[in-house]
Design brief:
By secondary structure, the chain is of the alpha+beta class. The protein has helices spanning 100-105, 122-134, 140-159, 165-184, 191-198, 202-213, 217-235, 240-246, 252-263, 267-277; strands spanning 5-10, 20-28, 34-38, 43-50, 52-57, 60-65, 69-72, 78-82, 89-96, 115-116. The strands form 2 sheets. The chain has a 6-stranded antiparallel β-sheet with strand order 1-2-9-4-7-10, with helices on one face. The two termini are 35 Å apart.
Length: 278
């Protein structure tokens, strides 16, 4: 069944690396209206405005009602559907970026418990999600405004969190490491350099990244460089060698191999593909 109404916005540009809004909207569903089973390539927060519904993930089923929120994690199979008698109305925002995992780690959302029951902040969450949607647009200004309002929304979940200080400390190590990577990725930095800057051992940094980002510091650094490379391939006339140098590779052949492993095609093929579709 189709929803009773659906207001949805999907961004065609995802250029902000730290945090970027992928989509936002709100809809009133018909009874038993369902999405999934399926996966997303980004984080997705739903807030239940009214009615009831069900969220299924990792073999668990959660019944949700007005004021509750649920989080969809990237690459995790989920399904959710409206109640038969009191179908829900919800608002949502989809997002990703280097800050996403760190911020969410400081909330009460967890892979093993991806829901938050109604709290005193509930009405503000609805208001902020609506504000993200109202800022929609494909201009760079709109992207920045949507992201700013997304940070506000996530801050609400952080303020009402019962997260332990230990997790916040771990997240602060990762945040410091990511700041260093953002400022120095164009140089041939290593994981040892990052660990030294943060002030922890290489193994401690590894454990922190695995806990917060579900990937190693080396994998994160490579992904970050590849995202920057994609941006330069799409928006500049630089040569492949120049792009390789610009994202921290002093060997263009090794850069091309790394890019191919990450994206499934060579830098040149990627650029040609972008040119053909523009």
């Amino acid at each position: 069944m189709e929803p009773k109404y659906k207001n949805s916005y999907k961004s065609s540009k995802k250029e902000l690396v730290s945090l970027s809004v992928y989509n936002a909207g709100f809809q009133k569903c018909e009874p038993l209206y369902q999405w999934g089973p399926g996966i997303r390539d980004h984080y997705l927060i739903h807030y239940v405005i009214s009615g009831k519904g069900y969220y299924k993930v990792n073999g668990q089923s959660y019944q949700l009602q007005a004021g509750d929120s649920f989080l969809v994690y990237p690459q995790i199979e989920v399904s959710y559907y409206a109640d038969k008698h009191e179908p829900w109305e919800y608002a949502w925002v989809g997002f990703n970026g280097s800050d996403a995992a760190i911020i969410l780690k400081a909330t009460d959302f967890r892979p093993e418990q991806p829901i938050i029951k109604r709290t005193p902040m509930a009405e503000k969450v609805q208001k902020y999600l609506r504000a993200i949607y109202e800022a929609r647009g494909n201009s760079f200004t709109s992207s920045v405004e949507m992201t700013g309002r997304l940070y506000q929304t996530l801050a609400l979940f952080m303020k009402n969190s019962n997260t332990t200080e230990q997790i916040n400390t771990t997240a602060s190590y990762v945040q410091k490491a990511i700041s260093y990577i953002s400022a120095n990725y164009s140089y041939p930095i290593s994981v040892d350099d990052i660990a030294a800057y943060v002030g922890v051992s290489r193994s401690h940094l590894y454990r922190s990244f695995e806990q917060v980002c579900q990937q190693s510091p080396k994998e994160y650094l490579t992904d970050f460089r590849m995202k920057q490379a994609c941006y330069l391939l799409e928006h500049s006339a630089l040569s492949i060698t120049a792009i390789a140098n610009s994202v921290g590779f002093d060997n263009s052949l090794y850069f091309s191999k790394t890019f191919h492993k990450s994206k499934g095609l060579s830098p040149r093929a990627y650029k040609n593909q972008i040119t053909q579709h523009s």
